[in-house]
UniProtKB/TrEMBL annotation:
The keyword Manganese does not apply. It comes from Ilyodon furcidens. It is a single-pass type I membrane protein. This is Transmembrane emp24 domain-containing protein 1. It is found in: Endoplasmic reticulum membrane; Endoplasmic reticulum-Golgi intermediate compartment membrane; Golgi apparatus, cis-Golgi network membrane; Membrane. PANTHER family: TRANSMEMBRANE EMP24 DOMAIN-CONTAINING PROTEIN (PTHR22811). The lineage of its organism: Eukaryota, Metazoa, Chordata, Craniata, Vertebrata. InterPro entries: Emp24-like (IPR015720), GOLD_dom (IPR009038), GOLD_dom_sf (IPR036598). Pfam families: EMP24_GP25L (PF01105). Belongs to the EMP24/GP25L family. Keywords: Endoplasmic reticulum, Membrane, Signal, Transmembrane, Transmembrane helix. Residues 48-130 form the GOLD domain. The chain crosses the membrane at residues 200-222. Residues 1-30 form the signal peptide. Its main location: endoplasmic reticulum.
Length: 234
């Protein structure tokens, strides 16, 4: 099982003043060939955070991220190899999907940077899918109590059952991953709608106040025009 480690870097501030708050605990699941890790965390303003994912050579590492809350809905994103080579660089993006084929074994660094924002913190969701580690899914160890019977026909039938179960497992795992991503999209859209609702309500109230002030000013001005205080001598 791959281990995901976290490093927090502070730019322009004291290291002890802010600690990343994990809004949802990441879940790591290992199923032989594929390994899935997903996290939702709060990235403070003016800071960056890096995660480390162990990968083997000739495998596949898929990284998908989304900014689901925060002003601007954007972060800087970087993936570095174990030797420090920048594999992926993105600036001011709200979401992204990248597939990296590790050419060397080691810890790959995945960084999210919010140092360009001085006041707004961002809530970020990301998911890491590792393929090609741990051997084939559903090997002989999956069925310790089943012995292959004699005869080529029964052997082929057992292999077909194993292949069908492996295919079903991969599809179910992929469906679960897609549902997780869709939930992240839903959370981001809901936060955006709530933010827009607050802005519309605020400016609507401001417009009503301005209209009332203008109406009162007009009434006062008209009354002053017809207010004749001159004395008439008879």
């Amino acid at each position: 099982m791959a281990v995901l480690r976290v490093r927090i870097s502070c730019r322009g501030g004291l290291l002890g003043l802010a600690v990343v708050f994990l809004c949802c605990t990441g879940s790591v699941q290992s199923s032989g060939q594929s390994q899935d890790s997903e996290f939702t965390f709060l990235l403070p303003a003016g800071r960056s955070e890096c995660f480390y994912q162990t990968a083997v050579k000739n495998g596949t590492m898929e990284v998908e991220y989304q900014v689901i809350a925060g002003a601007g809905m954007d972060v800087d994103f970087t993936i570095l190899s174990p030797k420090g080579v920048r594999l992926i660089i993105e600036s001011r993006r709200s979401d992204g999907l990248h597939v990296v084929e590790p050419m060397e074994e080691g810890d790959y660094e995945i960084c999210f940077d919010n140092s360009f924002s001085r006041f707004s913190e961002k809530m970020v969701f990301f998911e890491i899918i590792i393929e090609g580690q741990g051997g084939d899914v559903g090997g002989d160890d999956e069925f310790p109590g089943i012995e292959e019977p004699d005869g080529s026909l029964l052997e082929y039938k057992l292999d077909d059952i194993r292949e069908s179960m492996d295919s079903l497992h991969r599809r179910l795992e992929r469906s679960r991953q897609m549902q997780t991503v869709l939930r992240a999209f839903e959370a981001r859209d809901r936060n955006l709608l709530e933010d827009n609702l607050w802005r519309v309500s605020f400016w609507s109230c401001a417009s009503v106040l301005v209209m009332l002030c203008v109406a009162l000013t007009q009434v006062y001005t008209v009354r002053k025009l017809f207010d004749d205080k001159r004395r008439v001598c008879t």
